[in-house]
Amino acid sequence: MTVSLLAGSAPVILVVDDDEVIRMLMRQFLEGEGYTVVEAENGHAALEKLAEQSFDLVILDIAMPGIDGLSVCEHIRSSMADPPPVLMVTALDDEQSVERSFSTGAADYIRKPLRWPVFKNRIRYIMGSHRGKQELELLSRNYEMILDAAANGICGVDDKGRISYVNPAALRMLGCSIKDARKRDYREMFKISLPGSEDFFEDCCPYFTQPDLKTMTCFDEVRMLRKDGTSFPADFRSTPILQGNRLIGGVLVFQDVTERQEAAEMIRYMANHDPLTNLPNRNYFRRRLPQAVSLARRYGRILCLLFVDLDRFKPINDQFGHGVGDMVLMQVAERLRNVLRASDSVCRLGGDEFVTLLESTETLDGAILVAQKVIESLNEPIEVGDHVCFIGASIGISVFPIDCQDAETMLRHADIAMYEAKKKGRNCWQIYSE
Q: How would you class 430 by CB atoms within 10 Å of its CB: exposed for 0-12, middle for 13-18, buried for 19 or more?
């Protein structure tokens, strides 16, 4: 839109005609309609006026000496960044003049002698149409600026499935340039794999092949391929654009959810692990033990649980402080990990209580051997800074299905057996029995 229209002042019209009487009549009529009029008596003068200021409309006579109206019109359309619309006015009525007028970029054509009501409404239509076009272009640029600034990847495809728009965020995620993406078929650019699949062949715009599909298609936590062959997790939305019932394109919106997945994984880890020792915690163990019991029952094998309670740990906290106590617990956790096989697991229930779940032990003797190794390992002195700490462990052993039939009973029996070991003098193991 020109400056005059944006400012809300009267639209400015340039009238170009070598006939002074015609120019005068046009000026009187147009000023009476509320327009501001600037005159030019020939093509040269018109080009000078166009270089000096902006106009909302140019009314051009075709037949003028020197530079004719058609040449001026062609210059306006080819050399100006935001050219005003042009209305050609002439006494000529041949088909060639009409064709040449429109081929040079004229918005419309009207014959002399002028019929003023027709002239008035033709001007209103041309300027209204031009203003609407400029407003639409401005709106489109504003929308594009918003889309360009969006953090999500946004892409538009036309009715042939070719990429018509792609924003910077999408280019960054896909690792490609605007040249790589523009006018490409969306299938070449957007290769996604559904959860649980390694094949990147999912059609992200199914409405092109399924005419009845007229709603958004959601792909949650899929994987998307980058140009270099690497992939990233994403949430993907694909929406058809309809004109009536006719498909004219689609909009693809996606976001990289790597950070969200990492945060969720961290939350899950923290919920199931002890922050001091990094061992699985009580929350994890209460879910894991019933699963292990169920598997042992299904395959007809034994399952052994060792309840480990540290001896002489409280005096360490009392004498050296909780900081030293925490360091001792961290070393205890490491020693327990080293004693167990990869198929077994150790958890910290809290305080100085640990449990070890032996899922691959085939005999009770195997569990006793592990318990003895734990005691021997924890009998070794633990050095923390300038302090040397001596602890031990009392261990209670429960065996499925020998003394229990469910997870809750198994844990209770191991706890009871541990207290029996303490009664026997600590630093030993005890198998549960009635």
A: buried
